[in-house]
Amino acid sequence: MLLVDWLYVGIFVIVGAIMAALPLGIVWVLSPRLALPQKRMTYESGVVPFGQAWAQFNVRYYLFGLIFVIFDVEVIYLYPWAIVFRQLGKFAFVEMLIFLVILMIGLAYAWRKGALEWA
Amino acid sequence: MPVGLTHYLVVSVLLFCLGLYAMLTRRNAVAILMGIELMLNAANINLVAFNKFVAPAALSGQVFALVVITLAACEAGVGLALVMAAYRNLETIHVDEINVMKW
Amino acid sequence: MEVNWPIEIARAVGLAVTVFTFLAVVAAMLGVLLERKIGGWIQSRLGPKHVGRQGLLQTVADTIKLLQKEHITPQAADAVIFNSAPLIVAVAGLLDWIVIPFGVVHIGGTAIPLVVRDLNIGVLFFAAMASLTVVGILAGGFASNNKYSLLGGLRSASQMISYELPLATALIAVAMQAGTLSTVGIVKAQDGWFGSFAFSQFPAFVIFLIAATAEVNRVPFDLPEAESELVAGYFSEYTGMRFALFQLGEYAEMFAMAALATTLFLGGWKGPVLPGLVWFLIKMYAVVFFLMWTRWTFPRLRLDQLLNLSWKVLLPAGLIWILLTGFAITFLAK
Amino acid sequence: MGEQAAFIILSIITLASAVVVVNSNNVVRAALALVPTFLGVTGLYIMLQAEFVAGIQVLIYAGAITVLILFVIMLTEGGTGLRIRQRNEQAPLGLLTAAALAAILISVLTRTEWPKSTATLPQYTASAIGNTFLTNSVLAFEVSSLVLLISLMGAIIIARREK
Q1: Distance from CA of C281 to the nearest CA of A (A)
Q2: pLDDT band at A84 (very low <50, low <70, confident <90, very high)
Q3: Does C41 map to a domain?
Q4: Where are the domains of chain D?
Q5: DSSP 3-state assignment of C215?
Q6: pLDDT in tens, C130-184
Q7: Domains along the sequence of chain B with CATH
Q8: Could you say which of A76, A102, A115 has the minimum Cβ distance to residue D156?
């Protein structure tokens, strides 16, 4: 039964959130509270914090994110293929070969263009 | 009243119009892209709902939902690349300030 | 089939509480203790020794201590996101366990696997839940509004997304040989000692172990947390029990990876003489021991080395291995 | 009973967090609110018995696209954008357009008689989808790999700094 399966998942989410929040509640009751302004300061190894946390970051984070999204999408085609290609024989294998070769060209292109280099 | 096709369609219309609203009124290009993602999600709800209630045996609705997810990922990738390029060259990502092509 | 909804709901709640307690006690508390004891043993020192016999109660004492700590929300932080980030990580760690089969019981001749739910898309479900952790970590890093946290969160996210793909290729290679995505089905497809996929899928096994280590941010892939340079990365600003929840999520994830390695590659609950549950735990702890052993043995990688390993070695290797497996099954199998 | 309750809860999660996405002045919050929106839609897919699409939805939307969006917010604005005006001058007009479209579509949809089918979905949707992709929809399958390749190339060219 499909919906029963997912009922379990839903209940796990709810119960998990409650049980994870429970210790936070206990802390709220037990813990001392002494509001000192120094306590709520941003931690910067003991130095008085300066400037914004939002520094400019490297564009490479985006490039890796992009390549990840593209290949993650490729993976969604691999999952259904993986469980049925046995029944469909040679044809299915060749189809996936074409699919993967096209994507490997993409990986090779990114590699060649230096999108996979961090330095 | 059991949950039927119309219920899902109404939810998807509301989601679509929220996305449209974000697209029409936001200044931040990334927020516009978020609106587009909402609209694509609404379209996907439609596809899957029609698949279940109108033609369950064919599964083409779900297959096309997967294709739409693929296109959404590509759109996000290229769209955000454009945002990055605009930010690099014009130092803004607010679409009403990007007007170098305006006559 | 008629479903008795109240009974199912009660069972689900009971199982959720059980699994969560299991994670908190066996994975997080015992895991931390094991980590410290094994670390001490490898480095020729004693490890925790004073609380309880041989320091056995050390983490219990730590938990009690953490329960009394004040919660500090930094002034600059975004309080709503700051507070929900640890919950996301902990719940994602819990959800992984839904599809892990612990063993099998025989009731009146029929074998019932001890699994919360044997979902049709089991392996995919696991991958999806593991990918949710990234969002929690990024949210924590963003909300803290602290330079260390932000940099740690970004690094952590870019590392986790880099290693998600090799992990997925390993999962797919196994699913191909088993012909199913269900975890119980995959265990059933492995027969005897040499039928376990650790042999026939050896490259996938290696890729999985490396990617899993990186996915749970452990040494040698612990750059995002790097105590010595980023003061614990994305959870620098978290105090008391919120910090413990991040820790719980991390250990739950690590044990889940070990349990998945057991399920996919080591034959799950299968084994002679002893009951299935015992075999499962033995194998899982063996993998956990392996992960701890690497942690205390290897130095930390540099960021560029880490990304190179994933994108230029593991991902191409995984894709080629998928094609080879497909070729072998399509053309060489009888 | 249970079905209606689940549907209402999921719809409320989806739409409420979509409102945050659309309305929040804090861009980071808007991006993070995408996650519950996508998870709510996932729940709707599960109610429609599309479990494979649901898994993919979590994997791609919640786990990948959101992360990419967060990265870009990090790399460009350099802040939550709280002190910057987030809406353009046509906000009232946009609201009117969206509301009008919603009203028209809903009134049309609720009046239409949709064809009903009594057939049932296949038990194991993942393998059925695989079969469809490799037989009837093979063109979509191969073309999507080309689309992926081209968008990868295009995005790399656009995003990289010219040397």
Answers
A1: 22
A2: confident
A3: no
A4: 1-84, 123-163
A5: helix
A6: 888 888 888 888 877 777 777 778 888 888 888 899 999 999 999 988 888 888 8
A7: 5-90 (1.10.287.3510)
A8: A115
What pLDDT sits at residue B78? Answer: 92
Is the CB of residue C99 less than 8 Å from the CB of residue C160?
A: no
The pLDDT tens digits for D83-102 are 677 777 788 898 999 999 99
Does C229 score more than 60 pLDDT? Answer: no
The C-alpha torsion from C216 through D55 and C322 to A64, rounded to 10°, is -60
Distance from CA of A47 to the nearest CA of D (A): 22
Is C241 a member of any domain? yes
Is A70 in contact with B74 (Cβ distance < 8 A)?
A: yes
Rounded to a whole number of angstroms, the distance from the CA of C20 to the nearest CA of chain A is 7
Beta bridge partners of D87: B26
C86 touches chain A (CB under 8 A): yes
Q: A52 or A91: whose pLDDT is higher?
A: A91
Contact C181/D29, CB-based, under 8 Å?
A: no
* Domain annotation covers residue C9: no
Q: Which of residues 39-68 of A touch B (CB under 8 A)?
A: 59, 62, 66
* CATH number for domain D1-84, candidates 3.30.1850.10, 3.20.20.70, 3.40.50.720, 1.20.120.1200: 1.20.120.1200
Peptide bond into C220 cis (omega under 30): yes
C245, A23 Cβ separation under 8 angstroms: yes
Chain A residue nearest residue D3, CA to CA = A3
**Paired residues of B94 in beta bridges:** B28
C121 vs A contacts (CB less than 8 Å): 79
Q: How many structural domains is chain C composed of?
A: 1
